[in-house]
Specification:
The protein is mostly helical. The protein has one domain (24-240). It has helices at residues 15-34, 43-70, 75-78, 92-101, 120-148, 158-179, 187-195, 201-221, 224-240. Helix 2 runs antiparallel to helix 5, helix 5 (120-148) runs antiparallel to helix 6 (158-179) and helix 5 (120-148) packs across helix 7. It is globular and about 55 Å long. It comes from Litorilinea aerophila. It is a multi-pass membrane protein. Keywords: Cell membrane, Hydrolase, Membrane, Metal-binding, Metalloprotease, Protease, Transmembrane, Transmembrane helix, Zinc.
Length: 241
């Protein structure tokens, strides 16, 4: 998601990277303060976050890679991203944000639309949407485990398993909503650009320049844009299963 600019130290970071470091620092401070209420750093939530980072995020990126490969582009395979190995997908900053804010990212999978065998716009939509919908599927599976009671019959206390699965489901749905925000570099922006008529290159460049700032504004000034659809989807999933 972020590209280095060469050199070392604070001065070597881009403006967006500096903003990201400051924002994450503030979120970590908030997490430390808020953990006194027993929420953010509870054992069940920590296990859920670890599962998101080691399983859900790799599944998300693998879904992008697998869709691109299935459509004819071998770029993800050649770059070693056609795998569920979390070590090749984890982005430390994105993983830390999962811990303190319930949203984050992994290293984005690169692919080349020139190599796919179908219409490029449709291919872009399918590749971009594959990641977020993998999170929705994982949330659905988590609810199935909750409703079936299978996960409650193991050696761990039932209340702990319920808490873990609830955190796992909630974070996956939040990731689904977050990634579909139509702001670069999130997956929703690729869907948006593919749906817009004509050449969208200039719009992409403009939005990419200010994408991170727009996301921060949404997160801190208009969090309802994320929380409201997340709540609606959660209620729909729990009532459907």
């Amino acid at each position: 998601m972020y590209r280095g600019s060469g050199g070392r130290g604070w001065q070597a970071l881009t403006t967006n990277q500096k903003i990201a470091v400051v924002v994450v620092g503030l979120l970590v401070l908030y997490a430390i303060v808020a953990s006194g209420s027993g929420g953010l750093l509870s054992p069940a939530r920590l296990l859920a976050v670890a599962t998101i980072v080691l399983v859900a995020l790799p599944v998300h990126e693998f879904a992008h890679a697998a869709t691109a490969v299935a459509l004819g582009d071998d770029t993800p395979r050649r770059q070693g991203r056609f795998t569920l190995n979390p070590l090749v997908h984890i982005d430390p900053l994105g993983a830390l944000l999962i811990l303190v804010a319930n949203f984050g990212w992994a290293r984005p999978v690169e692919w080349n639309p020139r190599y796919i065998r179908i219409d490029r716009r449709l291919g872009s939509i399918l590749v971009a949407a594959a990641g977020p919908f993998s999170n929705l599927l994982l949330a659905f599976l988590g609810i199935l485990l909750l409703k079936s009671g299978i996960g409650l019959q193991g050696p761990l206390p039932a209340y702990f398993v319920v808490q873990f699965l609830n955190f796992f489901v909630n974070i996956n749905v939040l990731l689904f909503v977050f990634n579909l925000i139509p702001v670069p570099p999130l997956d929703g922006s690729h869907v948006l650009f593919a749906l817009l008529p004509g050449d969208t290159y200039r719009l992409q460049m403009q939005l990419s320049q200010y994408g991170f700032l727009i996301l921060m504004a949404i997160i801190f000034l208009a969090p309802g844009l994320i929380r409201i659809p997340t709540g609606i989807i959660l209620r729909a999933l729990y009532s459907f299963v």
